[in-house]
Amino acid sequence: MIARRKFVKLALAGTTLPLIELRPADAGGSQNLRFLFLTDVHAMLDRNAPAKMDDIASRIRDLGIDLIIGGGDFVDGGFTSTPAQMEPKFALLRRFLEKINHPIEAVAGNHDLVGVCPADGSTPEPDPARYLRETFGLRTLHRTFDHGTFRFIVLDSVEPLPAPKTYRGHVSAEQILWIKSLLDSTPKDQPIVLCSHIPFRSTFLQNKDGPEAPLPDNLVVTNANDVLALFEGHNLPLVLQGHLHVNEVIHWNKRTFLTGGAVSGAWWKGDNWGTEPGFGTVEITPSHCDWTYLT
Known about the structure:
Blueprint: E1 5-9, E2 16-22, E3 33-38, H1 49-63, E4 68-70, H2 83-100, E5 105-106, H3 130-136, E6 143-147, E7 150-154, E8 158-160, E9 167-169, H4 173-184, E10 191-195, H5 204-209, H6 224-229, E11 235-241, E12 247-252, E13 255-260, E14 279-284, E15 289-294
Parallel strand pairs: 3-4, 4-5, 7-10, 10-11, 11-13
Antiparallel strand pairs: 1-2, 2-15, 3-14, 6-7, 8-9, 12-13, 14-15
C-alpha cells in the first residue's frame, strides 16, 4: 500500500513526478542508506546510443552517490552474438563506466551472456559470463557484500536452456544452498537487499495484455517463492529487479519489489509502455524507503 505521496523536483528530468514512499519491515535500528539503481543500459552502436550514454554517465557521476547497483543487460545482444561481434559494445560499456568514474555492483542479465547460441551457427562459448566478469572484476555472478549495516545479495537469475529455447528466469540449486549458508551467518535483524535481473514479482503483462495474462518463464523467476521462503525470519525489505524496462513498484507483506525502468528505455527508441528512459535513487531509513525515478 502507498503510505504517502509527496512531490519532488527531479534533478535530471526537470519535471515533477510523485515520489512513492515504501514501508519496509523493521530495519533493526540500521543507519540510513542512499544508493543509485540503474538497469538495462543495452549498450549498442546505433540509435545514437553512444552519445546518449556519454550524457547519462556524466549525470550519474555528478550525483555523487557512493553506491551504484547495476541491474543487468549492460550490453545488447550478447546471447546470440559472437565475442568478436560483442567487443565494440563492451568497449562502449567500458567507456560508459569510465565516465561514471565509480564502481558499479553488477547483476548479470541475459544480454550480458555472450555466445550462448550464436545466430551465425558458430560454436557456443564455453563460458558466456566471462566477458561480464572481466569487465566488472567479478569472481562469480552470485555474491554478497555489506554496505554500512545493510547486506546486499546478488543473484544470477538467468538460466540458459537447450535449443530451440533460449533461457528462463531461475535461481540454481547451487545458489539456493549458498543462500542458506549465508543466512545462517546473517543476523536476523540485519536489513537485506536482494538483487536480480529477472523479476521475482511483476504485473507487467497483466497491465499490458489484460488481468488474466500470465508471465512466461523468461520474464519471471520461476522458483521465486522457493527463494523468498529462505528469508522467512530475516529482514528482507527490498528486492531490486530489471529486465522489463518498466518502472514498477509492488508492495507485498512488508516487502517491496522494485523494477527499475531502463536506462535505454525502449532499447534507445524512446519510452517503453509509458516508462521513460531513466534510473533512480533509493533512500532507506529505519522507518521508510523512498524510490525516485529520474528520467
